[in-house]
Amino acid sequence: MSEEQIKNLEKQFEERIARDEKIEPKDWMPEKYRKTHIRQMSQHAHSEIIGMLPEGNWITRAPSLRRKVALLAKVQDEAGHGLYLYSACETLGVSRDELYEQLHSGKAKYSSIFNYPTITWADMGAIGWLVDGAAIINQVPLCNTSYGPYARAMIRVCKEESFHQRQGFEIMIKLANGTPEQKDMAQDALNRWWWPSLMMLGPTDAESIHTEQSMKWKLKRKSNDDLRQQFIDQTVPQAELIGLTIPDPDLKWNEERQSYDFGEINWDEFWQVVKGHGPMNKERMKARVNAWEEGEWVRDAAMAYAEKKQERKEKQVV
Amino acid sequence: MKNENLYNYILGIADNSLILGQRLGELTGHGPSLETDIACTNISLDLFGQVRSYFQYAAKIAGDDRTEDDIAMLRKERDYKNVLLVEQPNTNFAYTMARQFLFDVYHLAFLSELQKSTDLTLSAIANKCIKEVSYHERFSSDWIKRLGDGTEESKVKMQEAIDGLWTYTDELFHQTEADKAMVAEGIGVDVTKLKDAYYARVNEILEEATLEIPESKWFQKGGKEGIHTEHMGYLLAELQYMQRAYPNMEW
Predict the structure, then answer these.
(1) Which of A248, B67, B122, B185 has a CA-to-CA distance to A206 between 20 and 30 Å?
(2) CB atoms B241 and A61 under 8 Å
(3) pTM for this one?
(4) What residue ranges define each of the domains in chain B, with the CATH number in brackets?
(5) Tell me: the pLDDT tens digits for A53-69?
């Protein structure tokens, strides 16, 4: 294809996106579009899979049967999200195994928040309320993103996430209205998860490398800083409602902006965790790699069995 | 308690689901593939759903202020009446599937009889559970075949798991005092009558999976009387942790 032809295709492609048309797997697309989407969607898929670990950590210790069932269902949903996001990636010509390989080798990133430990039951509440809350803010705009399979996956993911978020908040309400010990547990969880949740919305706009192109492709509709502000403005009244204190002495309502001003985020901590040196980075990766390696004989057996079955079927036909 | 036999009978049924569900819950996020991970979590979820129905009913029968969670999490080890089979650890995926299969075949046959119970609540619960359990049985027997007739390595592992767990199968057909009383009243299932069909079905799948049917006639029992293996205490330590560490609180 000549350079001019490619330019022409690119122009048509950008026009389609500008008209809000969906791009489908078999449509022509620029290589950079394909790669960017694989990167973002697989990062999202990896986050779902790694995200199963901190919450899975409390399944066996959930305090009541009702909570145990809800937690199991939630973690199962996350596995489901991972599954359709990996499938969406496959429509762009990359296999799930390749993506796992990228995750296990440390080449692919996932949401840094899951590198913090879940040390009390209240962390299940805080994760649902704050982490899923921040995820929804990130993800709702993606329901209208330009790549069809991603947009459709996100519609379903967002519905389930908002259910998880309410469920998490409900855990917090119960704790906040419980005994002093339960209330302390809730406050402690909020103290530990607040700042990492703010970081979850990504580096400040000045530091964010992908924003401009992503905006054009509707992979991003608002800047990280705007999303963060939206999250804070939404969450502070919820904390007040249940009598918990946001661990930020600089947090203050700004009448003029009709928004909350907030304190300095510790970006050194953010980059430390992103670079692999958070409290649980090594453990999370080890758990995934172990599951994958120890499961190899199982996957091989399933494959061998399927082949044998197919052979027998063919023989029967002959 | 007026209906002590019925109460104990329900606990005997539900404890199997409780303990197996707990074991499966340990695996979430650590499965050999995303699909098996989802399936095992789903089975655990089904089992805990069943447990809730049984224990809510048991709490009603007890007629005091005890709740489903008190029954699930605040008994002493000797008061749990599950069979030894379901408390066995997740040694590897072959053990997990063999344990599941050896229980599912029993569970399906049991529920099919419990549907005929003269106790309408129990028959309604059985009616709801049997749909889930027939899926469990299909899932686990498929894995017995896949691993048995898969690769050399998987065959060895699956055979080891079947051999290792076989010793716990006979207990499924032992009757407790509560069992006998409930059978006499037309409420309970006579498990001794399920035994032949159970081994016939298990053997059929093992043969299809090209596995050897274990010949050992030495069996372990005790779970139904509350005498468990050494694994049980650790399992309960996790299951009961929150209720023990923070007593009398709502969650």
Answers:
(1) A248
(2) yes
(3) 0.96
(4) 4-245 (1.20.1260.10)
(5) 999 999 999 999 999 99
